[in-house]
Amino acid sequence: TTSILWFRRDLRLGDHPALAEAGRAADRVLALYVLDPRLLGPSGAPRRTFLYRCLRELNDQLDGRLLVLRGDPIDVVARVVREFGADSVHVSADAGPYGRERDALVEKAIDVDFVRTGSPYAITPGRVLKGDGTPFKVFTPFYRAWTEHGWRGPARTSASTVDWVDPSRMDGVAIPDDEDLGGMEIPAAGEDAARKAWREFRKVRAEYAEHRDRPDLPGTSRISPYLRWGCVHPRTLLADLGPDDEAYRRELAFRDFYADVLWHRPESARKNYDRKFDALPHDSGEKADELFEAWCAGKTGFPIVDAGMRQLLAEGWMHNRVRMIVASFLAKDLHLWWRRGATHFMRYLVDGDLASNQHGWQWTAGSGTDASPYFRVFNPITQGEKFDPNGDYVRRYVPELREVAGKRVHQPWKLDGGVPAGYPAPIVDHAEERLEALRRYDIVKGT
Ligand code: FAD
After folding, report:
1. 158 is a domain residue
2. Is there a single domain that holds both residue 307 and residue 340?
3. Under 8 Å between Cβ of 325 and 364
4. Closest ligand 1 atom to the C-alpha of 225?
5. What's the Enzyme Commission number for this chain (predicted)?
6. Domain that holds residue 225
7. CA 83 to ligand 1 center in whole angstroms
8. C-alpha distances out from residue 189 to 49, 55, 73, 97, Å
């Protein structure tokens, strides 16, 4: 007998519950990946390239026995089932709106069992509920209930857990080549690289709570691209944490929380979670487009904002504190709709994830679950001075400011010689735009 393990956001062999289940269900397992144009299109070159590299790593781990096909999974999976006479198809459950719908259609299109085992989360979205059976809308009580609910230990799986089918009787497609990233350096891909990132983080883990907000320090785990693609399961990480790692556990819970929100409210990927914010006026037109372009390019004249936007372009990743600062700047200083910024992020982030990104943006813009209140407007200067106290982060990504010593780098317009050559003057007046943001907030409050 043969079962199919259809890989999606679980590109690993360790701690893989669906792999264990596929092995229990049949004598042999066929490893399948489907390149789905509907998902690849909006992904952006950095994330696609990271995916292709993950697939190459996975294929190597499987001694070349990963069958890769391209097309609509509804047709492709059904064809593979027929071709190999498979008795079941196994997946890690997908919690996103597109994935859920696609899986329901695939399930209908095949006449064998479609088995969902586990998910990319510590606790499968939809399972942590309030006492009255309704979903949580606020993180802290979710976190309490999530902790009480608990999760299984890691599944013990590896390449040798099952007997892999040689897929060569079907013509697969080659894993696509890397795309041109124009000098961007994205993290190493695959399960080994994920393990390595975790080993590195263990060295600085004791300082995580203290350093996690400091973009100038290597204070966070940088594990997000690996969690995004399932090169590591969060339970593997949770099993390795101790009682002193509360701050880190909380962040992993945040990832579960946003997936849970998206599960219950799939439309919140596109619309304001808090529909009152539909009344908030946004700027558009030529001037707004110009400001948006300056933001995208990291040329706003606000050093911490520019450093963040350029880190995104240089690495396909941005530090969490700086994601909040640049998002606040787009929403509250430039008065643009959060989705414009979110779409730019999704084009460049290697860890770009619909649940964490759209809800991270909505949190900052004020329209999300227990969001930062709209009237709390981040000051990009004091944020810079507080979280990049020596200016090292800014100097790393903004070469025009490299000669400016210390934290003076956060206010280049105050330098004796004026703003250094090549660096823009601030594109807006923060104090004025803050007041404008508050005026607009009054409109929302009045609805
Ligand atoms: P660490 O601090 O080491 O945290 C460990 C893990 O916990 C992360 O890898 C991540 O999986 C999870 N986590 C941490 N903070 C958050 C958070 N605020 N929300 C959800 N999960 C979190 N994260 C993404 O994975 N993909 C995104 O597309 C994404 N977009 C974001 C957009 C905005 C506007 C904001 C404010 C945040 C966004 N985040 C996103 C959350 C967060 O910025 C990243 O997860 C984090 O920076 C990844 O770095 P790390 O692995 O070093 O984090």
Report:
1. no
2. yes
3. no
4. 25
5. 4.1.99.3
6. 120-153+190-264
7. 41
8. 9, 9, 24, 26
134 burial via Cβ count (<10 Å: 0-12, 13-18, 19+): exposed
252 pocket-lining for ligand 1 (C-beta < 6 Å): yes
Q: Residue 185: inside a domain, yes or no?
A: no
- Write the residue with the smallest CA distance to atom 44 of ligand 1: 320
> What CATH number should be reported for the domain holding residue 365?
1.10.579.10
CB of 349 within 6 A of ligand 1: the answer is yes
352 lines ligand 1 (CB under 6 A): yes
Cα separation, 68 vs 314, whole angstroms: 30
What CATH number corresponds to the domain at position 12? 3.40.50.620
| pLDDT tens-digit map of 59-116 | 999 999 999 999 999 999 999 999 999 999 999 999 999 999 999 999 999 999 999 9
Give the residue ranges of DSSP H helices in 16-150: 17-25, 37-40, 45-61, 73-84, 97-109, 139-149
- ipTM here: 0.99
Please give the structure tokens belonging to residue 424.
């823009």
Same domain, 255 and 368: no
Residue whose CA is at the smallest distance from ligand 1 atom 33: 360
Q: Do 292 and 424 lie in a common domain?
A: yes
pLDDT in tens, 298-338: 999 999 999 999 999 999 999 999 999 999 999 999 999 99
